[in-house]
Design a protein that fits this description.
about 160 residues, alpha/beta, six-stranded mixed sheet, two-stranded antiparallel sheet, 5 helices, globular
């Protein structure tokens, strides 16, 4: 299984920590802290004008191409105000080209159809946050990506 780990923190992530969410397979860590990644503009051009391709030309293009070949995505994020910080949120907002504008029912809810394939989602976080809220968010993100939640784990402070 191919797993893409999107690390938004300045520090490296210990491989054994990733192993708590993903038991086996090929794991690639992408450190996004030094990358130039803009926030999603909400223009929907990745659905309408350039299907599957974001019109923002920045370093996220590297990430989205790798996600097309992955089965799992793990976000590593700091927290702010009890939730994922703006770095993590910005990374997740830009995943929109993986989805289509068409809607289907999954788990009794309306969800966008996947453009390529389901993605499982996991979260490693640092700082103070509401664990239950993050677990629910992880389940919802995974459901939106037609996959399963890999879980949510709080990282120990150094």
């Amino acid at each position: 299984m191919k797993t893409i780990v999107l690390n938004t923190l300045e520090e490296a992530i210990a491989p054994e920590l990733i192993g708590t969410l993903v038991k086996d397979g090929d794991v690639e860590v992408i450190n996004t802290a030094g990358m130039k990644i803009s926030g999603c503009m909400g223009c929907n051009q990745c659905w309408l004008k350039t299907p599957g391709i974001c019109v923002i030309k920045d370093d996220y293009e590297i990430i989205i191409k790798k996600l097309v070949g992955a089965e799992n995505v793990v976000l590593v994020s700091g927290t702010r105000f009890g939730f994922v910080d703006w770095h993590g949120k910005k990374i997740m907002d830009r995943i929109l080209p993986m989805l289509c504008m068409y809607i289907e029912f999954r788990e009794g809810l309306e969800r966008h159809m996947m453009r390529y394939h389901p993605l499982n989602f996991g979260l490693l976080y640092k700082g103070d946050a509401d664990q239950d809220l993050l677990e629910e968010w992880s389940r919802r993100v995974a459901s939106n990506l037609a996959g399963q939640s890999l879980g949510v784990i709080k990282m120990k402070e150094a």
